[in-house]
Amino acid sequence: MLKNITLSADINLISEARKKALRENTTLNAQFRQWLNRYISIDLKVSDYEKLMDSFSYANPDQKFTRDEMNER
User: Fold this and answer.
1) Range of the domain at 27
2) DSSP letters along 3-65, please?
3) Domain for residue 5, yes or no?
4) How far is CA 28 from CA 16, 36, 54, 61, in A?
């Protein structure tokens, strides 16, 4: 279901955006929906990254190994 919203912007900016959308065979509404999806996906990517890093919490990057320890198999 789509919901209508009202946005305000400079008339010249809207005019140029409409022209660009027309050149790209799309609409301002379609471009806004794409932007909205990208806008929220940034947070999702950050959240996914943070979850991944938390899953590596057992690793200790400050731990120092001797040459022999690094070469153990």
Assistant:
1) 18-54
2) --------HHHHHHHHHHHHHTT--HHHHHHHHHHHHHHHHHHHHHHHHHHHHTTT--TT---
3) no
4) 10, 12, 40, 48
> What's the rounded Cα separation, in Å, for the pair 34 and 44?
15
The reply to whether 8 falls in a domain is: no
Assigned domain for 38 exists: yes
Answering whether pTM is above 0.85, one says no
Q: Residue 22 has what pLDDT? A: 96
What is the number of structural domains in the chain?
A: 1
> Rounded distance, CA 59 to CA 73, Å?
19
Q: Are 12 and 19 in contact (CB under 8 A)?
A: no
Q: Cβ neighbours of residue 17 under 8 Å, at least 6 residues apart? A: 28, 31
Q: Write out residues in the chain with pLDDT < 50, as ranges.
A: none
